[in-house]
From TrEMBL:
This protein's name: Formin-binding protein 1-like
The encoding gene: FNBP1L
A GO BP annotation: clathrin-dependent endocytosis
The keyword Signal is assigned to this record: no
Coiled coil: 133-177, 405-439
Pfam family, one: SH3_1
Membrane topology: Peripheral membrane protein
One Gene Ontology cellular component: cytosol
Localization annotation: Cell membrane; Cytoplasm, Cell cortex; Cytoplasm, Cytoskeleton; Cytoplasmic vesicle
Stretch list, region Disordered: 477-534
Higher taxonomy: Eukaryota, Metazoa, Chordata, Craniata, Vertebrata
Stored InterPro entries: AH/BAR_dom_sf (IPR027267), F_BAR_dom (IPR031160), FCH_dom (IPR001060), FNBP1L_F-BAR (IPR035494), FNBP1L_SH3 (IPR035493), HR1_CIP4_FNBP1L (IPR057871), HR1_rho-bd (IPR011072), HR1_TOCA (IPR057870)
Keyword Coiled coil applies: yes
One GO MF term attached to the UniProt entry: GTPase binding
Amino acid sequence: KIWRLNLEDKEDQFDSLDKHTQWGIDFLERYAKFVKERIEIEQNYAKQLRNLVKKYCPKRSSKDEEPRFTSCVAFFNILNELNDYAGQREVVAEEMAHRVYGELMRYAHDLKTERKMHLQEGRKAQQYLDMCWKQMDNSKKKFERECREAEKAQQSYERLDNDTNATKADVEKAKQQLNLRTHMADENKNEYAAQLQNFNGEQHKHFYVVIPQIYKQLQEMDERRTIKLSECYRGFADSERKVIPIISKCLEGMILAAKSVDERRDSQMVVDSFKSGFEPPGDFPFEDYSQHIYRTISDGTISASKQESGKMDAKTTVGKAKGKLWLFGKKPKPQSPPLTPTSLFTSSTPNGSQFLTFSIEPVHYCMNEIKTGKPRIPSFRSLKRGVSLIMALEDFSHLPPEQRRKKLQQRIDELNRELQKESDQKDALNKMKDVYEKNPQMGDPGSLQPKLAETMNNIDRLRMEIHKNEAWLSEVEGKTGGRGDRRHSSDINHLVTQGRESPEGSYTDDANQEVRGPPQQHGHHSEFDDEFEDDDPLPAIGHCKAIYPFDGHNEGTLAMKEGEVLYIIEEDKGDGWTRARRQNGEEGYVPTSYIDVTLEKNSKGAVTYI
C-alpha cells in the first residue's frame, strides 16, 4: 500500500512524513553509536585481558625460571588460552566495526542524501501546484471583477435608456461601455475557465501521480532503512556467533589444563629438586661424663697423665680437657729428615718403583734458612681455600651429590648441542671448500682455512669439556650408587665423603682423586704448617659431635667416626670446613655439615647451629 493523504491536509501530512523519515535516520545513527560503544568495550576488554596475561606470564630470561610444576604449567596454559580468547574479542570488535558500524555509517549518509532529494521533489511539486492555483485564482478574481464592472455598465445603460431627459449620445455611450465590459467579462471568463481546467489537471496529477510517487519513494527508503537495521542486528549477532567455536576451544583448553594438574608429579619434582643424596644421621650415642671424674681421681703422675691423655674418651666436655692437651704447653715437632736430592724429586711406591714428584721439604728447608726474629706470617690455608672455592664452582662440588649430578648432566647436554652445531658448521665448510676446489671461479678454498681451523679448535675444546664433565658425572654417579650400601654405624668409616670440598680445593669423592699424585709425608706437612703458624696450640672455643663418619684422606683434613667428640679451635669461615682437634692433639679440618657444633657462651661470636 502507498501512503495516501487527504487533500485538505496535504501540507501537514508532508511535514509528518518529513519528521518520520528524519526520526528513522536519527534512530539509525543512534544504533550506530550503540555499536561503536560496544566495539570500544570489546577493544578495551581485549586490551585489558592481554595486559592481564602479560602481567602474569613469566619472563623467561633463563631456563631455570621455566615452569616445571604441573600446576604452574597449567596456569600458563590457561594464560595462553586467555590470550587467544582476547584475540577472539578483538575479532568480534573488528567484525562489528567492518560489517555493522561501517555499513551503518555509509548507509546513513546515502539515506540522508536520498531523503533530501525526495523531499526537494515533493516541495517542488507543491510549489508548482501552488503556482497553478494562484494563476487560477487571479483569473477568477479578474473575471469576477469584470463581471461586476459589466453589471454596473448594464445598470447605467438601463438607467439612461429609461431616462427621458437623457440624450441619445449618452445612451449610445452607455451602450458602448456595456458592450465593452461584457466583452471583457467574456474574455476573463474564458481565461478563468482555462486556468481552472489547467489547475484541476495539475492538482489531479499532483495528488494522484507526483505526490504518490514521491511518497512511494520515501516509503521504499524507510523500508530499506528498516531492512538495513534488521541486517545489522543479524550481523551484530553473527559477529559474536562466529567466534563461539574458537572461544569454546579456548575454554576446553582451560579445562584440559586444569585436568593436567598432577599433585604427585609436582611432589616428585620437589623431591628431585631438593634431594641432596646425603644419608640421614644415625642415633646419638650415650655420653658418659663420669669416666673423666674417675680418671682424674686416679691420675697421680705425669707418666700416667700422658698415658691417660692418649686413651681419654672423645666425648668428655671441653672445659675439663683444655689444660690436658699438651703437658709442656707446646706441640712436639717431628724432626725433619736430611735434605737429599731423592727426597726433593722422587718418591717410592710400595712395589719399589719411583716417580717424579714435588715434595714440600725444599720449602721447609728454605723457610728454616730465612727465619728471623720478625713476627711469623700467617698460614696460606685461607688463600688455598679461596682458590678451592673457585675451582669447586666449575665442577659444582659445592653442591650436594644429587644436585651436582643434575647440574653436570645439564652442562653436558648443552656442550653436546654446541658440539653438534660446530660439527654441522665444519661439514658445511668442507662442502663449500670442495665446491670451491671444483669451481675456482666461485671462490678461493684457502679463504675457508682459518674458519675451518677455528671450528676444529672449538670442537676439540668442546670435546675436552665434555670429557671432563663426564668424568665428574661418572665420579658422582659411582659414589652415589655406592652410598646406598652404607649403614649408620660408628664402626664403618672407610667410605668416601660425598659432595664435599677439601681445604686444599679438590673434590673429596675419591681418595685417589683427592690426592693428585703420590701421598705426601705427614711429618713434612705438619712441619711446613708449623713454620707459618703460632708455636702455641690454638685454644678450644667449643666442641662438636660427628653426625657422619669422615675418612679425611686429604691433606689438612681430620678423620672422625660417627658420634666422636672433638674440640673446635676455628669456626667455619664460610667455605664449609671447621677446624677441630682431638684430645691427643691431632688437628685438621672436618666438613661443617657432618658435625653438630656447640660453641662456648663466653667465646666471641658463639653460635650453636647444625
